[in-house]
Structure formats: C-alpha cells, structure tokens
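Example 3.2
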Amino acid sequence: LCPQQRSAGPSNVLRDACLVANVLDPRIKQEIIKKFIKQHLSEYLVLFQENQDVAWLDKIDRRYAWIKRQLVDYEEKYGRMFPGEWCMTERIAVDFCHITRMELGKIMRTRAREIEVKLLLFAIQRTTNFEGLLAKRFSGSTLSETVTKKPDPPPASTNPFLEEESATDEEESPSERLDIDKPQKPKIPNNPFHGIVSK
C-alpha cells in the first residue's frame, strides 16, 4: 500500500468492504448490517435497562432524545461509509423501535400497578409524535423488507361452468355486500411508522 492509502484509515476499508459485500451474497450484506446495528444500539440496552430509573414511562422522552442524538452521530461518523441504498440510518431507527416496543412491554408488565391513565396517555402521545417524526425523516423502505408478503390470489378460473355461478353471486344488492353491522376502523394517516412502537 502506498502511504496515501494508509492515511485514509479504517473508514475507507469499511467503505470498500461494504461495496464488495454489496455485490456478493446478500447474506453477507445482512450480516454486516445486523452486527453494526447491534453494536450501535448496545449502549441503549444498557442505559435503558428495566431496572434503570430512566426506563420508566415518565422518562420516555429520554429514549427518543437518545436515538435522535445517535442518528445524528451516526450520520457524522459513518454516513459515507455505507452505501446509501442500505438505508442504515433508517435501519438503526427501525431496530431501535422494535427493541423499545419489547422493552416497554416488559417493563409495563412488571410495573403494571404503577401505570396511571395520565402517565400512559403521556407516553402514548410522545411515542406517536416520535413515530410521526420518523415518517417525516424516512421513507419506510426498510419496513417492507420485514413485512411478510401476502399470498397471491388464485388465478381466475377458465372453467366456463363456474362463470354462471359467479355471475349470480354478483347480483347481490349493494347493501348485502356491505357489512353495515361491522364497525369501520378509522383511517390511519399514511405513516409507515404508525404503531412501530405504540402498537
């Protein structure tokens, strides 16, 4: 190696390794992503352990402030090392949300008697605000990778004998097709992060 390449340091090595991983087996890329995110969020798991005072719902803002600082820090230190299409900042945020949902669930089960309506509403409001902030900042493209794909509907039948039966089924009145008795769910704003922590 020439002296100029050595001075570039580990950041160039990591960037080059990521570019190589990008063209190799996708499992290699996934392993790099998984290890990096796990390392990046390890401090969070220690700081906000169930037995820590800051882990409780009244200090939920501290969790969200922590991840915001971490994402800014990530962008400054590592933003150029990983290929942009890896969406690392979003992936870190999504993993943080999954961990937070699990950790909050555990602590709320453990301390269920301490939950008051006002405290719960406060935590829900802060959490939905945070989810809204994520929706403004990220596309949600990494969320679709984890969602299970719905099976494709069966292909349309080419059997001519079934066409008559399906035609008579379609002659129902509009009121029969709509279930008026069933309550309708309110429409949720188009936010791919809605419920990622709060559900």
